[in-house]
Specification:
Length: about 900
């Protein structure tokens, strides 16, 4: 199997009154049918109980004849495998030669001939009990609603369209069920096609809502016809982007659809600038051939530069390595393609539609001065003049607010990724090491029954040992061994999941105090065992355990840590029995150390002595040694130990033996007898051993682990680390030992490091683009100075909505760079144009450019902000949406207020001494 396969289609097969072999028979039929479906790569069956054939010997019989195990193994080896007997050629025919006598089932094993040392021969079935049964104890199993079940898990091809394959699989399964008896049923445990469909449908609704909201805002603020023209361009942009993205290999999923929603406001920015310029020039009475194309000629390159910059800010995500970068890299492709398409359409579609849809003549031609003399324009003009007059005070206040908001970011919750809004969660259940698998099975079924009584719980599926398959990328996949089990609990919706988790957690922990129970939701950072982990590495296990113990004690003292969750990944030491093997005594009896192990295995779980092929499955044959009544041997000292070469008679002369000078009974006894374990072992003692010892890069490593306190809203992994970091890092490490933070902190550091690695490239693109546009370092610095002030909007927005600052929010901050720079470019370019083309004084150019760009800047920000509204309820994008909405709200004020102030300060522009009020009235 490919370890990268994800079995995203996961069914349970149940049947009251049907045995495991019967269920497995029909599960194989279903597997055969599903493998024929296009797009299906693999189908596995999980949760089946392994059948074994046990050859049960009494210890008394084995004590009398130690040759029996060797004869059984030899017979199975020679008769249990197909032999190559060659071919026979005769008169042109070539015939394959087969040899009969192949052992096929337990009946054939019972007929194996056993020969004693005195020449007698008898059937194995006459001296041993031969039975076909299930392997005991049960180490893996799958149950749904407390009923035994089999898991049928389907992995799809890498290039498969998930919803389409899901429909084909569902249809083929329905056909296959017609061949299966009544009473056997299937139900979906996890069905990725449905989740993909739900996500796509939800985002398509969000996308449509976003488009409609933006168009309505445009109509309300720019007029019906202008809004329809820009809205039509927005729809064209999205429609033309899809085929281009398809060629680029982008698929339709929540990231690509979410990227369209993020870009929604930016997609109309260019069209707003062009449309606003057309409307202004039209009101000035310019002829159509002038007002339709003048603004495009003047702003084409600045808008292209701004578009390139806006797209390039997401290039870090595209180039970022690792799973997070792979997951989110479609953001860049969607934004890059759609923004460039929007730029082209703004220059072509807007003028064409404006020529056809706008009225040919204005009712009143206002001239070049009357257009910008509305009450709003006059207010902005006076406000800008006032702020420029007191620019030092205004800038000082803005810097103070910025510092306050940067400090306020420490009060914002910090998460790597939010939880997915799945209506299913996982209960992990650990018993202490060496706990019986039978108890795990009992407790899982008991917990299933308990949770099924909860009216808010729809279904409970239980699995022993581990999940039946790796069926989801964003769920905890734990292989806890014989003492582990898990429950997959389904509720009505995600809201119910959030409500019920604290209730169920408390209920299960109180009922099973000696078990370690943890509840986990689906999360992108789920690949770590715990969200907070610190690793110690070094040579001595005892020293490592002591270092981990110190760290665990520190974790327990933190109010932000769930004390129940504190543990280490080596788990507690486990009890074991150690047989003190006496080599000299054993060798005198011809017993090797491996023989002792085989005898103990046979007396306990059973020693595998062969495998037979039963149709399409391999059945292991075990040899078990039991008391005469079939019970297990309690006193290990009495276990008979035999050897495959049980010959060690130093007192016998070989020449005499060959010549008949040695008593035959004594010779047979020395050669083939078994001996009790007590004769070759000093003692059997109880010891404590490490069950698991992890190694990192060949060196022993232990992790102290914990999770945030779920009862505290402010408790996050980042908060926990901030609270315990100094104390843990002050632990004295012996020479040769190291400490490092792992867990979610490591994943987050790698993801952010992957982004930061390419930030210099983004900065380079932004700087080069700005220099090509303005050819002036002061103007580049002026534009970049505005960006930090977006935190004046980000911090209050996140705190107001109680949203965490996630990895997606970081991407949102990077996207804000492009959005802010885009608005700033439009304003600075207009200042340049007024000075060069209309020969205005620098001060009046700054003021009039700001006044003329009020509507385009406000509209660009407003459309982006309202376009984000559908994403507020999405768990993946909500923090990014809030970040962009808050940052742009203040960013608009920054562009219209701080940028003119910075411009006048950097270029030493002073307000003229003339009566500005009269000047303004003249304008």
């Amino acid at each position: 199997d490919d370890m990268m396969d994800v079995y995203g289609i996961f069914y349970a097969l149940t049947g009251d009154g049907y045995s495991y072999p019967e269920l497995y028979k029909y599960a194989k039929l279903i597997r055969r049918e599903l493998l024929a479906v296009d797009g299906v790569k693999r189908v596995i069956i999980g949760g089946n109980r392994d059948e074994v054939i046990n050859v049960v010997l009494s210890k008394e019989e084995l004590s009398r004849n130690g040759l029996i195990p060797t004869q059984i193994m030899t017979a199975l080896s020679s008769s249990g495998q197909t032999v190559d007997a060659g071919t026979y050629q005769n008169e042109g025919d070539k015939l394959r030669i087969n040899v009969s006598g192949l052992i096929k089932d337990e009946k054939d094993i019972a007929d194996i001939a056993i020969k004693t040392t005195d020449g007698k021969q008898f059937r194995l079935g006459d001296i041993a009990k031969i039975e076909r049964t299930f392997s005991e104890p049960q180490r893996n199993g799958f149950f749904v609603g407390g009923r035994q079940a089999l898991a049928i898990c389907v992995a799809m091809e890498a290039d498969a369209i998930v919803p389409d394959v899901g429909k084909l699989v569902d249809a083929r399964l329905a056909e296959a069920m017609k061949q299966i008896p009544t009473g056997i049923e299937t139900e979906k445990i996890f069905f990725q096609p449905d989740k993909v469909d739900d996500a796509i449908n939800s985002f398509m609704v969000n996308l449509v809502e976003s488009v409609l909201i933006v168009i309505l805002v445009l109509i309300f603020t720019m007029g019906f016809r202008s809004g329809i023209i820009i809205g039509f361009g927005l729809i064209l942009t999205i429609a033309l982007s899809f085929p281009i993205l398809l060629v680029c290999g982008t698929t339709l999923q929540r990231i690509s659809l979410g990227a369209f929603i993020i870009a929604m406001g930016m997609l109309v920015d260019n069209a707003i600038v062009i449309m606003d310029g057309i409307l202004i020039d039209k009101k000035r009475g310019l002829p159509p051939q002038t007002y339709l194309y003048r603004i495009g000629r003047n702003t084409a390159m600045p808008l292209l530069g701004a578009t390139v910059i806006a797209a390039s800010t997401f290039i870090c995500v595209f180039l970022s390595e690792g799973s997070v970068g792979e997951y989110a890299n479609d953001l860049f492709l969607v934004l890059c393609v759609s923004l460039l398409v929007s730029w082209v359409l703004a220059l072509i579609q807007v003028p064409v539609c404006a020529n056809s849809w706008l009225p040919r003549r204005e009712k009143e031609k206002r001239g070049s001065n009357g257009v910008m003399n509305s009450p709003v324009h006059r207010f902005v003009r006076r406000a800008i003049g006032f702020l420029i007059r007191y620019k030092k005070t205004t800038i000082s206040i803005a810097v103070a607010v910025l510092l306050l908001c940067i400090g306020g970011m420490t009060q914002v919750k910090n998460l790597f990724f939010p939880d997915f809004d799945y209506k299913q969660f996982v209960v992990e259940y650990y018993l202490p090491p060496q706990s019986s698998p039978d108890r795990v099975r009992h407790d899982l079924l008991e917990m299933s029954e308990l949770l099924q009584k909860n009216p808010k719980v729809e279904r409970v599926a239980a699995s022993m040992g581990s999940a039946p398959a790796y069926y989801c990328l964003v769920r905890p996949m734990t292989s806890g061994g014989d003492c582990y089990g898990e429950l997959m609990v389904d509720c009505k919706d995600y809201k119910t999941v959030v409500e019920q988790i604290p209730v169920i957690r408390k209920q299960l922990r109180e009922k099973y105090p000696d078990a370690y129970i943890r509840i986990r939701k689906y999360n992108f950072s789920i690949s770590t065992s715990h969200t907070v982990e610190v690793e110690f590495s070094g040579p001595d296990p005892a020293v490592l355990r002591d270092l981990s113990r110190q760290a665990e004690n520190i974790m327990r003292k933190s109010r932000y840590v769930d004390p129940y969750s504190v543990e280490n990944n080596w788990k507690p030491r486990g009890k074991s029995l150690t047989v003190d093997y006496v080599r000299n005594d054993a060798l005198r009896s011809g017993i090797e150390r491996s023989d002792v192990g085989n005898a103990l295995k046979a007396a306990s779980d059973g020693m595998p002595i062969g495998v037979i092929n039963d149709r399409d499955q391999m059945v292991v044959v075990n040899m078990q040694v039991r008391n005469g009544d079939g019970s297990r041997i309690k006193d290990l000292h009495d276990i008979p130990v035999w050897s495959t070469i049980n010959l060690h008679a130093p007192d016998i002369n070989p020449a005499l033996a060959l010549g008949g000078g040695v008593d035959s009974d004594k010779l047979q006894d020395d050669m083939f007898r078994s001996v009790p374990l007590s004769s070759i072992a000093d003692s059997i003692r109880l010891t404590w051993d490490e069950n698991v010892v992890y190694r990192i890069n060949g060196q022993r490593a232990i992790e102290a682990q914990c999770d945030p306190n779920a009862d505290l809203d402010e408790a996050t992994p980042a908060k926990v680390i901030a609270d315990i970091k100094d104390e843990i890092e002050s632990i004295q490490l012996p020479q040769g030992y190291k400490m490092r933070w792992v867990g979610e902190n490591e994943l987050q550091s790698e993801a952010i490091g992957g982004l930061m690695k390419y930030v210099p490239l983004t900065i380079f693109i932004v700087l080069i683009s700005l220099l090509l546009l303005f050819d002036n370092w002061k103007k580049v610095i002026l534009i970049l100075l505005c960006f930090p002030f977006v935190f004046c909007g980000i911090t209050p927005a996140l705190l107001m909505f109680n949203e965490p600052f996630t990895f997606m929010a970081i991407i949102g901050v990077m996207g804000l760079i492009g959005m802010m720079v885009k608005n700033a470019i439009v304003l600075v370019d207009e200042i340049n144009r007024l000075q060069k083309e209309e020969h205005q004084e620098p001060y009046h150019a700054v003021v009039e450019a700001t006044v003329s760009r009020v509507r385009p800047v406000l509209m660009a920000s407003l459309t982006t902000i309202v376009g984000m509204i559908p994403l507020i309820g999405d768990p993946m994008y909500s923090s990014m949406a809030i970040t962009i909405m808050g940052g742009l709200t203040i960013g608009t004020m920054i562009t219209l207020i701080l940028l003119p102030l910075f411009y006048t300060a950097l270029f030493h522009i002073k307000q003229p001494q003339t009566n500005t009020d009269n000047k303004n009235r003249d304008i």
